[in-house]
Design goal:
The complex is a heterodimer. Chain A is of the alpha/beta class. Chain A contains ten helices and ten strands. The chains are: A alpha/beta, B alpha/beta.
Chain lengths: ~260, ~300
């Protein structure tokens, strides 16, 4: 099986410091890969580099497109990158306000990616938006309300709907559950798990929450100081951590 | 225009106090280097229909927003043999039109006219003349905001990128929101268009009633935005499409009334309040079109009465 996304010795640093260094991994179709680590360990930098939101300093990054073609993402032209981001990828921001357009209604937010790829039938766009609102457990009657009228957890679900509406193959998520209270978090995680399995999505999730990782991820990468210190199957890493940092990380989860 | 235009100034009257060129200014006010710079920008604009070409906009002796862009474009293309017509909201008699016409009459000495058919250059604000233009004419628009994505994407650099990549999903979002809030596409002026199947372009604040006239127009259409320092163009016979949805097609305004002066049902009508008790009146916004129709009607009436006698 060919990997969907493949990184080799990927490096992105800010003036020779911080950032992430020498990261290599393969992500296979339908797989959920979680990147965990403390604040400042380079998780978000890595995610942004993978999603082509920032330019990598060195290393190789390849993606297998829907037509089976292998693309060298680092040399891909800007129009192709945008097309890829619009049609095959999604990016869920930590703060839904960054990922949503605040001035337009929920329906327009979900419909925008569709219109960007050429949908020109108002009724159909609206119908799809309503369907997606139901799928992420939002009241479809509220389609014409502004994002600010929704609660934090609802906004996050709205953002997820907006990202999944074009039927992407790969979704990047930057701490999707941070800043939500525990019960809302649980429902959102449940929803994400259902969606990833039913839609056969490949997902890259950045989180500092071990619980999120255990619930969603097939595989885990633990980062510290910009490098990957340990990686493997989720249960394996969490139940039998080898690296001292991973051991600390697992040990510092508060018992309930 | 804030009063029904019933005045009929003859061309001779207009000419008598307008066509004396004053000395001490270069022809058409701007120096030759500036005009050359403008023409270079215009050539590029014509070569890439709908693309906004940056240019070094000059200070003009009128404030931004009053037509500094249009006046510079006109200054760059006008020649001694041209005949100039200036309209503002369709009318030849509003402050803006009168002053710009007088400005060019003084600085170039060219003939000015109110008749659309006689003009070789028509500078306009907010309207396209009702009578069809020919391939011998140039229409110059005054544009306040050339960027159609301005309200949706505040970053100029990002807007440029969106134009370069023809990434125009954003403008559909605006139309979608219009339908959500108003039940139909509520944009009535400055209605966005796609020029030659490529660039998303602002048609300047003309009513959407005029948008169909942009399409395959025989005249060369030049757009100048002085404050924003952009020039763009629609060459003769360029396809121009107004954006819409499949199930909410583009439509122009319609009125139940006809023009109270000339009886036209085809032209764009201004609604005017004519007395303190709120009496309303609909008249053509294109004053020259209205004049000509009234002259025709008068001439016909005289003929008929002559025949009867």
């Amino acid at each position: 099986m060919t990997p969907l996304l493949s990184a080799r010795a990927l490096t992105k640093q800010y003036g020779g410091r911080n950032g992430c260094r020498d990261v290599s991994f393969d992500l296979y179709p339908g797989e959920v890969l979680c990147i965990v680590g403390e604040s400042g360990s380079g998780k978000t930098t890595l995610l942004n580099t993978l999603a082509l939101r920032t330019e990598a300093d060195s290393g190789a990054l390849h993606y297998t497109g829907a037509n089976g073609e292998t693309l060298d993402l680092r040399t891909l032209s800007e129009p192709r990158r945008r097309l890829l981001a619009r049609t095959e990828w999604g990016f869920v921001q930590q703060n839904p306000r960054d990922g949503l357009r605040a001035g337009v209604s929920a329906g327009a937010n979900i419909g925008e990616p569709l219109m960007a790829v050429g949908a020109r039938h108002y009724g159909q766009i609206r119908h799809t938006a309503q369907q997606w609102m139901q799928r992420v457990e939002l009241d479809a009657m509220r389609i014409d309300e502004l994002p600010s009228a929704f609660s934090g957890g609802m906004q996050q679900r709205l953002q997820i709907a907006r990202n999944l509406v074009t039927g992407p193959r790969l979704v990047f998520m930057d701490e999707p559950t941070a800043g939500l209270d525990v019960s809302v978090q649980a429902r959102l995680l449940d929803l994400l798990r259902t969606l990833t399995t039913t839609l056969h999505l490949s997902v890259l999730i950045v989180t500092h929450d071990i619980g999120v990782a255990r619930l969603l991820a097939h595989r885990l990468m633990v980062m510290q100081g910009g490098t990957v210190v340990e990686s493997g199957l989720t249960d394996q890493v969490l139940d039998d951590p080898q690296h001292p940092y991973t051991q600390t990380l697992v040990a510092s989860v508060l018992p309930v | 225009m804030n009063a029904p235009d019933t005045l009929r100034t003859t061309a001779a009257e207009v000419a008598s106090h307008e066509t004396q060129a004053v000395s001490g200014y270069n022809f058409a006010y701007l120096d030759e280097q500036t005009k050359r710079m403008l023409r270079r920008a215009l050539l590029k604009a014509v070569a890439v229909p709908g693309y906004q070409v940056p240019f070094a906009s000059r200070e003009m002796p009128l404030p931004y927003g009053w037509g500094t862009g249009g006046i510079q474009v006109t200054a760059a293309i006008i020649g001694a043999k041209d005949t100039l017509k200036v309209i503002d909201q369709g009318s030849d008699d509003t402050t803006n039109a009168v002053n710009i016409r007088r400005f060019f009459a003084r600085t170039t000495g060219v003939a000015t006219t109110r008749r659309t058919s006689e003009a070789s250059i028509v500078q306009t604000r907010h309207r396209i003349p009702e009578s069809p233009l020919t391939d011998k004419q140039i229409l110059v628009y005054q544009v306040p905001m050339p960027e159609p994505l301005f309200r949706l994407e505040p970053r100029v650099a990002e807007c440029k990128k969106l134009h370069a990549l023809a990434d125009y999903g954003l403008i559909s979002v605006k139309l979608y929101e219009d339908i959500v809030q108003h039940g139909s596409i509520a944009t009535t002026y400055d209605y966005p268009v796609t020029v030659n199947g490529r660039y998303l372009t602002s048609p300047s604040p003309i009513p959407k009633f005029d948008n169909p006239k942009l399409h395959m127009n025989a005249a060369l259409q030049l757009f100048g935005a002085g404050r924003e320092r952009r020039i763009y163009a629609m060459p003769p016979y360029t396809p121009v499409k107004s954006l819409d949805f499949d199930d909410h097609p583009f439509e122009v305004e319609r009125w139940d009334e006809c023009c109270a002066l000339c009886g036209s049902r085809e032209s764009f009508l201004d609604e005017m309040i004519v007395d303190d008790s709120g009496k309303r009146m609909f008249v053509c916004s294109d004053s020259d079109y209205c004049h000509e129709r009234r002259e025709d009607i008068d001439a016909r009436a005289t003929n008929e009465s002559g025949e009867n006698a």
